[in-house]
Write a structure and sequence with these properties.
Layout lengths: L1 H21 L16 H4 L3 H16 L9 H6 L4 E3 L11 H4 L15 H21 L8 H25 L3 E2 L14 E2 L1 H18 L11 H15 L2 H12 L18 E2 L8 E2 L4 H5 L13 E5 L14 H5 L27 H4 L6 E3 L1 H6 L14 E2 L9 H5 L23 H4 L3 E2 H4 L16 E5 H15 L2 H14 L12 H11 L6 H15 L19 H9 L1 H5 L22 H5 L28
Antiparallel strand pairs: 1-7, 2-3, 4-5, 6-10, 8-9
Helix pairs in contact: 3-6, 3-7, 6-7, 7-8, 7-9, 8-9, 9-10, 9-18, 10-18, 18-19, 18-20
């Protein structure tokens, strides 16, 4: 009876509504939105333009934040790292099998993030183009205000194209706002796009300022990017001039002494659940989250701002989850019992100091061991660099059974030489603690919380200028710039005789882990070897005609990355592979197929290359 009453009440309510609707005019059903998004009515002043710039800034953040951030994909296409996931197929281990125009469209955490770079690169270009196309329809307080906003938009567009042409090669050059459906895009030559963004950056350098809020585009950031673009074009003198404008600028200088009030690095002591604080050092302090955007920090040229509660990435960076070894699992004590424990119920909560890693980004032997050529290098010193042997056996089961290994340092092998780790790919490697330790107040155990991040930093400007000097054969000047970075880290200086491209790339690997887009820079350098014909440190010369078949990118990776060189196999039977054509990523199939009235070319080595047409040799509106 109760249910019957309920149904009658509902039916009566519906009948009343129906009668009301039937009795009304059709106009009653017409939607009446409270507001419209109309660009001509939206982008009318400086505040609206700055909102669009904020969208460009937010777009940059996702390269470094969240689960499997895209920067890891850049890293695994290089000599410094590989995909560390070993318990499933799908992650980018066997690149020959998995990197295809169709498969790169799976941009979830269990595959790769190539498609993110493609889609989000063009999204940011769209935001920038809206500003550029509508700049003269808005009102500003002064010509200087207009030009500063236009210069920032030029920077954002140039940054995305710099990345796209070194990730994908020839790509569509969209240089104005698209206001109607368009299905007739054509690939444009990489060099044409680079020349266009150089021209834009030359203008932006005149208009931008260093007197802006952290996270906004600075003149230093424009000059830094212009240095890279000039290098990519082979304009080495222009690259030096652009780098000089940053290095010699009063707002910027390398930090050379400890600063800030962050907690110091620590050392784990056998037998004690309480780590011991170590002295502060400049490398540690430079990368503390609370120090990165301090006014006293003169090294950051362009910052990505990420603060707790801003809503963009609720879980923060998760950087410790991604790039710290999966040390809480697969590591046994010499007694054969489980040795390590990454949860919070242990007497010694080790994860509060190193995070709970899953080893997604696995460093090569080159990155872990071979590049560390000076025992005094602060970037590889105790407290700043964490070795597995620095950790302690902290599993509660060891304590409850009075195991003598409890709170002793972790070991890879027992006294008989047997391995104590059942997955050395994922669970046993070292990491730069000074970069990766980002305290986390949202996840338990810690995964890596919120932190500002360096997009461009003065240390890289020195290394870019060193590279320009290298291409010009001025090796003494190149050595001097490399030494600015080396000696700050406590290393002995090198000489002109030590300088080659490998020297520069080694220093970049030591200094710019999880900052530089390593694949992008390797591809840019590979183009230059092919363009100039200069012999690489391996004795080989290269040409543009065979770029996807024979290039410096592949030769260096095979020489330095032991996983790809040896074809190491994971415990899921996936083999690490890479090929020369991976110097350029595949253009996603859906972008090619959806462009029905034009032609976006595919890169050599991938299905669809046979349908290519000549790329455009000029920018076409």
């Amino acid at each position: 009876m109760r249910n019957t009453v309920k149904y009658i009440q509902v039916a009566g309510f519906c009948a009343t509504i129906l009668a009301t609707v039937v009795g009304c005019k059709k106009s009653y059903l017409a939607p009446e939105p409270l507001s419209f998004y109309e660009p001509s009515a939206t982008y009318v002043d400086a505040a609206a333009m700055r909102s669009a710039l904020a969208s460009c800034n937010r777009n940059l953040r996702q390269e470094f934040y969240g689960g499997n951030p895209p920067i890891l994909t850049e890293m695994l296409f290089s000599e410094i790292a590989v995909e560390g996931t070993t318990d499933k197929s799908g992650p980018a281990v066997d690149l020959n099998l998995l990197i295809t125009p169709d498969l790169v469209q799976f941009n979830d955490d269990d595959h790769n993030k190539i498609y993110v770079y493609w889609t989000e690169g063009y999204n940011a270009i769209k935001y920038a183009n809206t500003i550029i196309s509508r700049i003269d329809q808005a009102t500003f307080s002064s010509p200087a205000e207009r030009n500063a906003i236009l210069g920032a938009a030029y920077f954002h567009r140039a940054l995305r194209y710099y990345r796209l042409v070194h990730q994908f090669g020839d790509v569509p050059a969209i240089m104005k706002e698209i206001t109607a459906p368009k299905l007739d895009f054509y690939s444009t030559k990489r060099e044409v796009i680079l020349q266009k963004i150089k021209t834009d950056l030359d203008s932006a350098l005149l208009w931008t300022s260093d007197n802006v809020n952290k996270g906004e585009v600075t003149k230093g950031a424009v000059a830094h990017l212009l240095t890279k673009v000039n290098l990519a074009l082979g304009n080495f003198d222009a690259a030096i001039t652009a780098a000089n404008s940053v290095i010699n600028s009063s707002p910027y200088s390398l930090m050379r002494a400890p600063f800030g009030n962050a907690a110091p690095p620590v050392e784990f002591i056998e037998g004690s659940p309480t780590p011991v604080a170590l002295p502060h050092n400049v490398i540690w302090d430079l990368h503390r989250p609370e120090n990165k955007s301090l006014a006293t920090n003169k090294e950051g040229l362009f910052m990505i701002i990420d603060r707790f509660g801003d809503g963009q990435f609720g879980t923060g960076m998760t950087i410790m989850r991604q790039a710290v070894a999966f040390w809480g699992t697969n590591v046994n004590a010499p007694s054969g019992k489980k040795g390590t424990y990454d949860n919070l119920t242990a007497e010694f909560v080790q994860s509060n100091y190193v995070g709970r890693g899953i080893g997604r980004s696995r460093p090569s032997n080159y990155a872990q061991y071979e590049i560390w050529d000076d025992p005094n290098d602060l970037r590889h010193a105790k407290g700043n660099w964490m070795r597995m042997e620095d950790l302690l056996y902290n599993d509660p089961g060891l304590k409850s059974t009075n195991d003598p290994n409890y709170l002793k340092h972790v070991r890879l092998r027992n006294s008989s030489g047997g391995l104590l780790c059942t997955d050395t790919i994922r669970s046993y490697f070292g990491w730069p603690q000074y970069k990766l330790f980002v305290p986390d107040f949202e996840n338990s155990p810690m995964q890596g919380g919120h932190s500002d991040w360096y997009m461009f930093r003065l240390a890289e400007t020195y290394l870019l200028r060193a590279e320009a000097y290298f291409w010009k054969g001025e090796l003494g000047l190149a050595a001097a710039d490399i030494n600015e970075v080396r000696t700050r880290a406590g290393c002995a200086p090198i000489t002109a005789a030590d300088v080659n491209m490998g020297t520069i790339l080694d220093e970049r690997a030591r200094e710019l882990f999880f900052e530089e887009p390593r694949k992008t820079e390797l591809t840019r350098i590979s183009y230059l070897f092919a363009k100039t014909g200069i012999a690489a440190e391996n004795g080989k010369t290269y040409t543009l005609n065979s770029f996807s078949d024979n290039n410096y990118f592949y030769d260096r990776i095979i020489a330095k990355n032991n996983f790809y060189r040896l074809g190491i196999v994971t415990n899921h039977a996936d083999k690490y592979t890479i090929s020369p054509y991976h110097v350029l990523w595949p253009i996603p199939t859906r972008s090619i197929n959806g462009n029905t009235n034009g032609r976006i070319n595919q890169n050599k080595g991938y299905v669809g290359y046979e349908n290519n047409v000549a790329p455009l040799d000029k920018i076409v509106d």
